[in-house]
Amino acid sequence: MTAPKLFSPGPIMVKENVRTALTHYDICHRSPEFEELFARATDKINKLFKADDSYRSVIISGSGTSSNETVLSSIFNEGEKVLLIRNGEFGQRLLEIIQKYEIPLVDCEFEWAEYPSIDRVEELLKANPDVKVIAMVYHETSTGMINPVKAVGELAKKYDKWFYVDCVSAAAGELIDVKDMNITFATSVGGKCLGAYPGSAYICGSKEALETLTSEMGKNVYLNLAKHYLKAEECNQTPNTPNVNLFWALDVALDNALADGGVEARVARYKECSGILREGLKKMGLKFLLEDEEKMSTTVTSVFLPEGKDLVQFINDMDAEGYTIYAGKGKYEAMGMFQVANMGEIYPDDCREFLKVIERVLA
Q1: What does pTM read for this prediction?
Q2: What CATH number has the domain spanning 5-11+262-362?
Q3: What pairs with residue 58 in β-bridges?
């Protein structure tokens, strides 16, 4: 079998040195070597988020959702409220977690692909002064929209709220500065823009906030942020057995992202690739879900098939050509929308070749 080319928003194609890292010799997770690996990787995660030493990062063995659930299940005392800003599938995922743990909710819902109104967020903050945390998704992958994190962070600072941001599809793909954006907790995972694998999730949190947490606040045993933080601070360890092999790959992927111009260089490559893709798709007469390209991410483009084309057939035909793309989620799938991602080991020439294939398949 020939390896498919993954133009899908995770998992992604990885660099060869990341794949090779999985073959590292076996070590025990309760060993000095693992503790050194943990310390190195978490220090690099801080750098990824432009965090200073007032932040601490931890690594969770699980998908991106596991890091989100770790935060949301761990940071509330009984009766404390969250204000959730949502406008897509992954905002809905945060809602599901919040409801499952019965956290009191102020729901700031917008239509999918609707840009959140800062005025409305502020109105809800004024009307609900007892809100403890504002929560939102940075890159709403279901539409490809970048949400107004910087502006919401300014509100969080103004009203003295914690600010939790799901950065799963944004870390290493967008320029994120947790200090400048007033982010209290940021989450992500290796198998997206960073260029590692699913199963290596991570959290970067403010030490000031982390120090207030207790393990009793956590409503989950394995995904308990206080336990992860205390163990990391005590001895660069995890409270339970982690997926050690993925730590090696994550560490190498972090090196790749921080080297040769750092995250800025990676984001510049992603922007160049998405620019090539969008220009080519426009030339084919295809329409985008988002009309304002300023609100589009650097790595995901949501596109509608021409009228009369069958989405399932199109995706199968692309698969037969060796290219994996995603169907749109929710109502957009019925509207013939597909998504093209340029995360991971995708470069400008790959995008040009992809455009040739998609044009041939559409014809």
Answers
A1: 0.97
A2: 3.90.1150.10
A3: 203
